[in-house]
Fold:
Amino acid sequence: MNRLAVHLPGLSMRNPIMPASGCFGFGKEYANYFDLEQLGAIAIKATTAEARFGNPTPRVAETTAGMLNAIGLQNPGLESVMTNELPWLERYDVPIVANVAGTEIDDYVATTAKLSTAKNVHAIELNISCPNVKQGGIAFGTIPHIAAELTREVKNVSKVPVYVKLSPNVSDIVEIARAVEEAGADGLSMINTLLGMRIDLRKKAPILSNGSGGLSGPAIKPVAIRMIHQVSQVVDIPIIGMGGIQTAEDVVEFMLAGASAVAIGTANFTDPLVCPTVIEQLPALLDELGIEKIEDLIGGSWRETCNVR
Amino acid sequence: MNRLAVHLPGLSMRNPIMPASGCFGFGKEYANYFDLEQLGAIAIKATTAEARFGNPTPRVAETTAGMLNAIGLQNPGLESVMTNELPWLERYDVPIVANVAGTEIDDYVATTAKLSTAKNVHAIELNISCPNVKQGGIAFGTIPHIAAELTREVKNVSKVPVYVKLSPNVSDIVEIARAVEEAGADGLSMINTLLGMRIDLRKKAPILSNGSGGLSGPAIKPVAIRMIHQVSQVVDIPIIGMGGIQTAEDVVEFMLAGASAVAIGTANFTDPLVCPTVIEQLPALLDELGIEKIEDLIGGSWRETCNVR
Amino acid sequence: MNKGLLTITKQRALTSHVMEITCEGPLTKKMTEPGQFLHLRIDATDDLLLRRPISICDVDQKQGQVKMLYRVEGKGTARLAEKLEGMDIDVLGPLGNGFPLEVTKEGETALLIGGGVGVPPLYYLSKQLKAKGVKVIHILGFQSEKDVFYKEEFTELGPTYVSTVDGSHGTKGFVTDVIHHEGLTFDTLYSCGPTPMLQALSTLYPDRRVFLSLEERMGCGIGACFACVCHVVGDETGTSYRKVCTDGPVFPVGEVVL
Amino acid sequence: MNKGLLTITKQRALTSHVMEITCEGPLTKKMTEPGQFLHLRIDATDDLLLRRPISICDVDQKQGQVKMLYRVEGKGTARLAEKLEGMDIDVLGPLGNGFPLEVTKEGETALLIGGGVGVPPLYYLSKQLKAKGVKVIHILGFQSEKDVFYKEEFTELGPTYVSTVDGSHGTKGFVTDVIHHEGLTFDTLYSCGPTPMLQALSTLYPDRRVFLSLEERMGCGIGACFACVCHVVGDETGTSYRKVCTDGPVFPVGEVVL
Ligand SMILES: Cc1cc2nc3c(=O)[nH]c(=O)nc-3n(C[C@H](O)[C@H](O)[C@H](O)COP(=O)(O)OP(=O)(O)OC[C@H]3O[C@@H](n4cnc5c(N)ncnc54)[C@H](O)[C@@H]3O)c2cc1C
Ligand SMILES: Cc1cc2nc3c(=O)[nH]c(=O)nc-3n(C[C@H](O)[C@H](O)[C@H](O)COP(=O)(O)OP(=O)(O)OC[C@H]3O[C@@H](n4cnc5c(N)ncnc54)[C@H](O)[C@@H]3O)c2cc1C
Ligand SMILES: Cc1cc2nc3c(=O)[nH]c(=O)nc-3n(C[C@H](O)[C@H](O)[C@H](O)COP(=O)(O)O)c2cc1C
Ligand SMILES: Cc1cc2nc3c(=O)[nH]c(=O)nc-3n(C[C@H](O)[C@H](O)[C@H](O)COP(=O)(O)O)c2cc1C
Ligand code: FES
Ligand code: FES
Structure:
């Protein structure tokens, strides 16, 4: 028995750890640091229908216990991901979660239709934090019926399960989660970054040339834990948890909150070996906590009949 | 000329620094550490119509670069604040910002009607992050028309200017800010805490007995800066900025974002002398940045005709 | 203003998890009351935002030195354990109300009961009681033999009994088992330790001269934030309270709800 | 896998703001290419999350030592400046593509132009060029006399000119003023410094053998996060890019948009 294994729609993972989208490129760089086959899955960088350059630099800024990014979804575009990036990843026996972004529903649909046919893509992750051009730039993920419509259309064409990645910048995360579940989402990813800004005192202007950016890292962990705790109790689909994870303890905290698997983002920049290190540390921590199989942790902070108490 | 002076409705402040509500009690404890007359103003602990005990303990938990609190608005109630706390503070020549909380609009109205008659209360700060009992516990501050109604009713009875303290846990902070401005708010305070949670791995339950709590401290600073930057550009009323301030540099960053004064919360626990220390450090920092009067900083990161560039 | 820097002069491990740290600095002059605590800013980085409350274990007024014993529990105490001699720690304190000495007269017997890291503050208390001519008896409760510390130090001051949960040292069981076993009596009982222990003592001696030191998660440590409150026994309004940081940490038995 | 610990063996101030740090460790063996950089995790606390990129200034392969010079700029470099001998730093590197040595033949002349903290990587470059029989000339640009560092070190390798913005040392003005003033010529020009300086050199010598080292805020430092990209000159699609961390930091003139 593999006590670290977790099972989610489309994703049979040897352990609950995957690098988070946008923080691991398409895997090549980190392959110089460790064997990617150690990972439970890999969430690749957001792919859009066309190649994108993204925002002007500076694109990142540090904050206390966090960072801001405004990369602007730079990526080589659907064609190149299909012909270059995904085939390269086939050398590893590890399921790929393909993150999809766009500015209109049709973008998402077109990209998903194709990406979901790739041999090693086992799940689609919809990045609904992108600005919706038809709605004047309001993010898809902040309006329940639009998030639902997007989910429904994408589900119609996807060959693999669809995870919807929720934006935390909302008044009521439960409302959005329920809307996308009802629209057919197979799972949720949460959370994407919080919107933040830093200002350069000397230039008297925001540090990021985009002005604001997405806040990630340990600073946001309590917000992620709270939202996962809330949402996991009211939806029946599994959650991939993320937001500030750095250690095996953090992984357990996310799973107790209600996550079925986790993604590690920013911490890869601090330590390129963070994913294999966390995976290695998990068994000893489970022993210490008296947990046999890691799946027994899921929702342990609220599940009445939880077999871990 | 006092180069640190700032002028807001009801508040003529000798400097832009006030301790934040709930983080300074009613001043007595910190008076053992420094002369409160050094402060620009004091925001006292939230007052409710009746005395409240608040939530069971544990009420605080540490997070990376932040803390969670679920005090539950413990306070001695309106009567006691009027007869004990405010008169004690009269010995200091410093304007008091009286923070008001409640569970129904009538609570806020009754409390404001009385508190705003106190000699040293120069402004009311409406804490609209409280759960609204009539709306099934949804916070007043997350629904624009309810926030506006509350503001309007309170403005009707208040003898002093009313600042509305916005909750950051919303999809669109600008919408709420506009709604309360239209309803007559004289100023805004932002931001209150983000909702967060931490889970104890050994107990397999949230650390706070209330489950979730409010996240404050440097972790949330980028969110506060972003929201103030957004809101200050679209409203005509001044903003008291807060969220993770610890240093004179932080104060300048908030003012460049668009705040006209600031409040310091959590940092008082780390260092009871943080307010006087920051006040003392401001002039040298202004010199370094080539700023004559601190008011010249307000909105400096976006104001076109800003005289600080 | 009880705020200042203490300089670490020595740090050593007493067990695999408990450290003894010795510091010096002018603030020690104020540390005269046993049972008070210090609120430590472990270091100046922003990821540890809150101070940590640690009891005063012993003060040498001549040398201007204070000792604290602490268990390496989480992030803060782990980082404290890495500090080296010569480094400074930013301290608030002494804070709170300690154990009352005056209630126990010369010639009377005081029973001091500590559990785990509740043991340290009793040491300074015992020294002061003994100096005053009070007969001191100690019961120290630990999990297991390997967790026992300061047994010799207490034994030098008076009879000292140890209980361990697993029976690997002294009496098997809890501190209350020692009381019964040994038939110990007292004029005043002073105790510090986990809440279940304090509850057991309250149940045994609801009407005796008993003082209990409480623990609660703290924010400010000085009475401003209302993080550390407890209910008052017999309060009908439900709104009466005591703050552990300023009204306590020591309370007479029966005053606050445990 | 270019990751490991370096141990600090020495740290000293060169000016009021610039520090020289010397470290040793097995990783130094790989540090053979001038112009590469190290990505430093200043310390293990969570409030500094990102690594800091600092150029390799000199390597002593016999001693297994590497030197870096850095300006105390913000939180991270300030904390680095507090580190003591014997402490370890977690390092990724050497990273990136450095200055090409092979393009400059024995007997040719190389002009090395550095501005501020762009000066350090040119030192290791100059040593290697000189060892190869290339004639090296240096121009170092600073704000003011008090900011000048490493003038003697460079002078030992070849003629060294200094410019200061305020004229308090060497030529008043910019490094380009020195070129004109002294009528300097070269076969290869290598430069590192602020973007306006690199832009001025690109404009002067668009078609010459010129190599420029760029600076950009970084996340990963290894090519995965797309924080540090720049546009490619003449790219019509607008989507071509180079990453400063892996394609650079050194680029031939005219390759990327400055
Ligand atoms: C009045 C008082 C006196 C104390 N005296 C001692 C002593 O002499 N020796 C000793 O070993 N311990 C003592 N404690 C407990 C000690 O404060 C905690 O063990 C310590 O704060 C844990 O910090 P950490 O960073 O290692 O743990 P973490 O779990 O990382 O701490 C996170 C947060 O929780 C708080 N916290 C965690 N556990 C406790 C606890 N048991 N009590 C209060 N706050 C807690 C921390 O202060 C911090 O704010 C005392 C507590 C109080 C209230
Ligand atoms: C390839 C490369 C080589 C460098 N070599 C040197 C060198 O040899 N000596 C030296 O003094 N400096 C060098 N720098 C600049 C150095 O990285 C920054 O001065 C340093 O990161 C500032 O960190 P801080 O924490 O002190 O400042 P903060 O402003 O607190 O840093 C906040 C964040 O911004 C980033 N940042 C701030 N300024 C810069 C900058 N100018 N360039 C890149 N990132 C920045 C930091 O890395 C950090 O992520 C180099 C930069 C690059 C990209
Ligand atoms: C540099 C960077 C780029 C990111 N790019 C993407 C992206 O392309 N698509 C996406 O859904 N999320 C993206 N994210 C968000 C992360 O996947 C993750 O949800 C978030 O950073 C929180 O996790 P962390 O705190 O572990 O980083 C990005 C985050 C960072 C820091
Ligand atoms: C312990 C604690 C109690 C608080 N109580 C109140 C309160 O009673 N009323 C209120 O409006 N805000 C309250 N706040 C929020 C603060 O006033 C402030 O808005 C927030 O903490 C962000 O600032 P900071 O990061 O500087 O703490 C409280 C915060 C803390 C940490
Ligand atoms: S810790 Fe703040 S009131 Fe006790
Ligand atoms: S810093 Fe991440 S790609 Fe260059």
Notes: Chain C has a mean pLDDT of 95.
